[in-house]
Automatic annotation (TrEMBL):
This is Uncharacterized protein. Residues 322-389 form the THUMP-like domain. InterPro entries: PG_1098_Fer, SAM-dependent_MTases_sf, Thump-like. Residues 279-321 form the PG-1098 ferredoxin-like domain. It comes from Maribacter ulvicola. The lineage of its organism: Bacteria, Pseudomonadati, Bacteroidota, Flavobacteriia, Flavobacteriales.
C-alpha cells in the first residue's frame, strides 16, 4: 500500500482525470516521484468503476482502491446490503474478506465483525478504508481464514465465505470443490465454529449440484441486478435437514422483483399450454437461473407456450417478475410473412428456437433496435412462430 497516493496533490490528480484516457497517462512521463503512472491508472480505473458499484466508497474522500481485478471480484453495495439482511447476532467472521465491501455491510447488522484476508496489502487497504468510512466494529486480520478458525478458541454467530473461483493458474473454476477455500472439505470445521454459514458462489453453479455437495442448506438466494445474475447465496444452518427454500430477487433501479418456491413445488406442477394470447411474459434472469419453469406459470395463473420455451401468456394483464409484452401479431417463420408485415427493425429474443439471432436477422432481413420486440419460439404444436410485441 503506497500511502503517497493519499496526499492531496495526488488525490486531486486522480479526481481531475477520471474521464481521461488512461492509455495517455500510462504512456506519459512519470508525473510524481513516489507514485508510478501504473499506480495512478489503477486508482483512476478502480475509482471510476466504484461510481456505480460502490457509491459510498466513491463519495468518500481519500479512499484507497485495489487494482481493478480485485475490485471486479468484490460484491456491489446492492448485493452486499442484501446479504446483510440475511444475518443477525453478535459476531461474524468474513473468512475471505477481500476489499471489505461485504464486511462493511455486515457491520451494520452485527455487533462484532472480523475481516480475514490473507493478502497483507489488501487487508491493510481494507483497514484503512474502514477508518475513512467511520467504521469501528470491524477487526482486520491478515491471515488465512481457515487458519484463523482453527486457531481461534471462539465460536461465532455467523461465518461468511466467498470462495475464490480461480485456480492457482488464475483460470476460472465452477464447482465448489475446486474453489479456494474448499468449503466441502472443511465443512466440519466451519460448523464447529458457527451454526450459521452464508456461502457466496458464482452464478454458473448449478443449484442441484450445489445441493448435492452442501449439507444443511436452509435457503438459497439467487441475486440479480438489472436482470444480470450476480451471485448465489447458500444459507446453511447446522442440523437443518428439511427442503431448502429458494428465493429469487432482481434489483431494478427503483424497485425489486421477488419470487420464492421450493424444488418440490416445481416437480409437482403440471403446466397448462396455450397459443400466444394478449400478453407475453418473460421471467427475469434470477427466476430462469432457479429452474422454476413450471411453478412460475402456475403460481401466476399463466399458460406456457411450450414445455421448453419458458415464455408465458395470458388474456388479462398481471404484475409479473420479469418483462411483460403486449402481442401485436403472430407470424410463421418465413421471410415472406415478415416482409409482408413490414417489419424491418426489431429487438429479437429466441426461446426454444433452432436458429441463432444472427441467422434470423439474415433470413428475415431485420435490423437491430427500435420499439418493436420479436420472440422467435416454438408453439405447443411444435411449429416455429414469430411473435411481434411491444414492451409494457
Amino acid at each position: 500500500m503506497n500511502t503517497a497516493i493519499l496526499t492531496n496533490e495526488i488525490q486531486g490528480f486522480i479526481n481531475d482525470n477520471l474521464k481521461t484516457d488512461v492509455h495517455k497517462i500510462i504512456l506519459s512521463k512519470q508525473k510524481f516521484t513516489k507514485v508510478s503512472q501504473k499506480e495512478l491508472v489503477e486508482q483512476i480505473e478502480s475509482k471510476l468503476k466504484s461510481k456505480s458499484k460502490l457509491p459510498t466508497w466513491f463519495n468518500t474522500q481519500n479512499i484507497y482502491y485495489p487494482n481493478k481485478l480485485n475490485l471486479s471480484q468484490t460484491s456491489s453495495e446492492i448485493t452486499a446490503n442484501y446479504k446483510a439482511s440475511l444475518v443477525n447476532g453478535k459476531s461474524l467472521v468474513d473468512v475471505t474478506g477481500g476489499f471489505g465491501v461485504d464486511s462493511f455491510a455486515f457491520c451494520k447488522k452485527i455487533k462484532e465483525v472480523v475481516h480475514i484476508e490473507k493478502n497483507e496489502t489488501l487487508s491493510q487497504i481494507a483497514r484503512y478504508n474502514f477508518n475513512q468510512l467511520g467504521i469501528s466494529n470491524i477487526t482486520c486480520i491478515a491471515t488465512n481464514g481457515l487458519t484463523f478458525l482453527q486457531e481461534s478458541p471462539n465460536t461465532f454467530s455467523w461465518l461468511y465465505i466467498d470462495p475464490s473461483r480461480r485456480d492457482k493458474e488464475n483460470k476460472k473454476v465452477y464447482y465448489l470443490s475446486d474453489c479456494e477455500p474448499n468449503v466441502i472439505e472443511h465443512m466440519d470445521l466451519l460448523l464447529v465454529k458457527s451454526s450459521n454459514l452464508l456461502i457466496k458462489t458464482g452464478p454458473l453453479l448449478d443449484l442441484k449440484s450445489g445441493l448435492k455437495e452442501l449439507s444443511h442448506v436452509k435457503e438459497i438466494h439467487i441475486v440479480a441486478v438489472n436482470n444480470d445474475v450476480k451471485e448465489i447465496l447458500w444459507l446453511i444452518e447446522k442440523g437443518f435437514n428439511s427442503e431448502a427454500f429458494i428465493k429469487t430477487v432482481n434489483f431494478k433501479p427503483n424497485y425489486k422483483q421477488e419470487f420464492c418456491f421450493r424444488l418440490s413445488d416445481e416437480e409437482n406442477t403440471i403446466p397448462e399450454y396455450s397459443e400466444p394470447l394478449t400478453y407475453i411474459y418473460e421471467p427475469n434472469a434470477a427466476i430462469l437461473k432457479s429452474g422454476s419453469f413450471q411453478f412460475t406459470g402456475d403460481h401466476f395463473n399463466l399458460y406456457k407456450l411450450h414445455p421448453h420455451a419458458h415464455l408465458y401468456t395470458s388474456e388479462k394483464l398481471i404484475e409479473f417478475p420479469g418483462r411483460v409484452f403486449i402481442v401485436k401479431d403472430i407470424y410463421e417463420y418465413s421471410k415472406k410473412a415478415i416482409k409482408k408485415a413490414g417489419i424491418s427493425k426489431a429487438n429479437i429474443t429466441t426461446r426454444n428456437f433452432p436458429d441463432s439471432i444472427e441467422k434470423i436477422r439474415k433470413k428475415l432481413q431485420i435490423k437491430d433496435g427500435g420499439d418493436n420486440y420479436i420472440f422467435c419460439t416454438t408453439n405447443k404444436y411444435e411449429k416455429l412462430i414469430v411473435i411481434s410485441c411491444f414492451q409494457i
